[in-house]
Each structure stands twice: as C-alpha cells, then as structure tokens.
Amino acid sequence: MESYTTQITVKQEHLDQLHHVNNIQYVSWVQDIAITHWEKAITEHIRNSYFWVLLQHSISYKKPAFLNDVIEVKTFIKSAKGVRSIRCVEFYNSETQTLLATSDTTWCLFNKENKKPTRITEDILNCFN
C-alpha cells in the first residue's frame, strides 16, 4: 500500500533527561502520523462514517535522536483484513538515513453510527493504493 512520509525537527520539549528524544515522544509521533495519513487519504464520506481504535502498540528503538536532528517519518499499511489493520511507522535520521525506531500498531475500524467494529471496505483500501 502507498506510504506517507513527513519530517520532524527535534525540539527541546521532545528530549528526556539523557538529552535524546523521549520514548513517549515516539509513541505520540506514531499516533500523529497515523491520523495525518488517514485524514489525507480518505474521502469526506469515509471520514464521516468510520474511526479507528488502537488495539496494540509495539515499538523498537534502534538509535537515539538529538536536539535539531531532522527525522524522516514514514508510515504504511502493512496489512488490512476484516476489522483490523496493521500500520508500520519507521523513523530515520534524514541526514544519515540511519534507522532510529520502528513501530507496528494494530487498529480496529469502527462505525461512527453504531460504535461497533466494522469490516474494512474496498473503498477504504482503495484510498491507500
């Protein structure tokens, strides 16, 4: 499926006591890019009909990032079947292309009207191809 990429410049508020990007910050960025990718790809009808709930989150930290580093953040749908989707997010140092962290998150699609899990439709999948 089609990927989405953005860049983030590390700011002071992203750092922990070791002066590198805080682990919790990566988790926040995973959620942010997932939402942005979804919002940019879908139609107004889909936006008004569905929402996602996070079921499982896994992240692997490889290398630290520091103040003023520019991080390239790439996301894509690894799989989508039934009511669940697995999204991958990769973080790279933009200058060196060093892999900093990876994340896999499992999301469940819900119908906005009845607030119940609902199958991922072809219309939704086509938005990401």
What keywords describe this structure?
5-stranded antiparallel sheet; Thiol Ester Dehydrase, Chain A; 129 residues; single chain; 5 strands; alpha+beta
Protein architecture, described:
It contains three helices and five strands, in the order E-H-H-E-E-E-E-H. The chain has 129 residues and is of the alpha+beta class. 23% of the residues lie in helices and 41% in strands. Strands 1-3-4-5-2 form a five-stranded antiparallel β-sheet. The chain has one domain: Roll (Thiol Ester Dehydrase, Chain A).
Q: What is this entry, summarized?
A:
The chain has about 130 residues and is α+β, with helices and mostly antiparallel strands.
Q: Give the number of helices.
A: 3
Quick one: biggest sheet? 5 strands, antiparallel
Strand order of the largest sheet: 1-3-4-5-2
**CATH architecture verdict:** Roll
Shape verdict: elongated
Percent of residues in β-strands: 35-45%
Order of helices and strands: EHHEEEEH
| Backbone CA Rg | 16 Å
The figure for the number of domains is 1
Number of strands: 5
- Mean pLDDT value: 96
Structural class: alpha+beta
Uncertain runs with pLDDT below 50, 5 residues or more? none
CATH top level class name = Alpha Beta
CATH superfamily: Hotdog Thioesterase
Distance between the termini: 5 Å
CATH topology: Thiol Ester Dehydrase, Chain A
Detail the topology: elements first, then pairings:
Layout: E1 4-9, H1 23-41, H2 44-49, E2 50-61, E3 70-81, E4 84-93, E5 99-111, H3 122-126
Antiparallel strand pairs: 1-3, 2-5, 3-4, 4-5
